[in-house]
Amino acid sequence: MEYISTRGKVAPLGFIDAILMGLANDGGLLVPKVIPQLSADTLKQWQKLSYPELALEIFSLYTEGEIPRDELKKLVDDSYGTFRDAEVTPVKKLSDTTYVLELFHGPTFAFKDIALQFLGNLYGYVSRRTNSIIHILGATSGDTGASAIEGVRGKEGIRICILHPHQKVSKVQELQMTTVNDANVLNLSVEGTFDDCQRIIKELFADVAFKERYHLRAINSINIARILAQTVYYFYAYFQLAKDNAAIGDSRVNFSVPTGNFGDIFAGYLAQKMGLPINKLILATNENNILERFVKEGVYQPGEFRGTYSPSMDIQVASNFERYLFYLYGEDTEAVTTLMAQFKAEGRIVIPADKLKAVQADFAAYGVQNEECLDTISGYYSKYNYLLDPHTACGIAAADQLATLGEITVTLSTAHPAKFDESIRLRGIQQTYPEQIQALFEKPQFQKVVGGSNDAIKDELVNFF
Known about the structure:
It comes from Paenibacillus whitsoniae. Its cofactor is pyridoxal 5'-phosphate. By secondary structure, this protein is α/β, with parallel strands linked by helices. The protein is built from 20 helices and 15 strands. A six-stranded mixed beta sheet has the order 3-4-14-9-10-13, with helices on both faces. A five-stranded parallel beta sheet has the order 8-5-6-7-15, with helices on both faces. Strand 9 (253-258), helix 11 (263-274) and strand 10 form a beta-alpha-beta unit. Helix 3 packs across helix 4, helix 5 (112-130) packs parallel to helix 6 (143-152) and helix 10 (224-244) crosses helix 11. The radius of gyration is 21 Å and the shape is globular.
């Protein structure tokens, strides 16, 4: 399997070189040169597999011999052996048409663990195999940071620096990152928004000389390994429904996906292109609804930043959006390069009517207002005795708006509600923290507040790496 850049100025890469490059050296994002196509027979056979077995089959398609199967199996088993639920990503039924895919049973109680436990182990494997230094640089709107740190803390040959927006993540998210005192971990609390953190990351990775001098590697969803790992649970959820619910049979199902950076829903789009019979991909956003506007109007333009009760989606510029543009424009790298140059110069992209029609065939979208998010939490808690975190609540609210009567919809539950107790308490709901989270409040924190400039971050990196 080879990987190419959305902007076409990088020679095809193998899997390991692709995950080490992270952001393509021409500023684009890496994608598979060819998307594997799965037959109906293969899908039927995969229904019988456990989550780790399914992950092994899917990863095997994208690594294609670069990692021996027995070594890849060990990476997969080590990654998902840390999860609290034997199914890794269990599917919970709330009603005959409403299901929740719980993605929060990993070490940090967030869906990011599913990709980052694997990527952390993969980086450790590559470091040992190549005797190389790996310096990970990432940005987080809350969950990526803790998951990434947990995936590599204490690992020999790896150092990690995570940027997060100062005082713009939940308290539990902050504690999960900043109570780690391992020597190979640095937390920088950046004065600004997540978009500022993400911009700094992309610009530092675009500085190829700096990236190579300091051995920088990506942990954010600009890294293609993140996307590939996230496709697995779309397949697994569909198979659980097809296997356990006779009413579904071979029919297609909807997935409602809370998303800010477009990575999680792009993984669903990739699964669909591989052959998974998904009906609708419902894109759920909050009041930072640039993606909703794009799906509805064909205009991609950041608006005014709004702090919400679902802070992990408080994002204006979605880092994975360029990958979708690549496929929307028929894998035309020149068209993508022109569009991204236009976005950099003018701050907006407007697509023609024929492309908008294609977008609306791929996605439905709904932006959830702040109070609507809280109302969904309290409503579902009252009706089903099931507690949603605010991001999952956005997914449920979008599904309620956009799923046709009688359609089965799976909403991706991206985090345990304990991570966002500040929002949940606004509706008078009391919850008990899991023991691992409760213990965080007794630990000292280790972080440094820094300015939101490239130079300020570079100074910290030079001293740390």
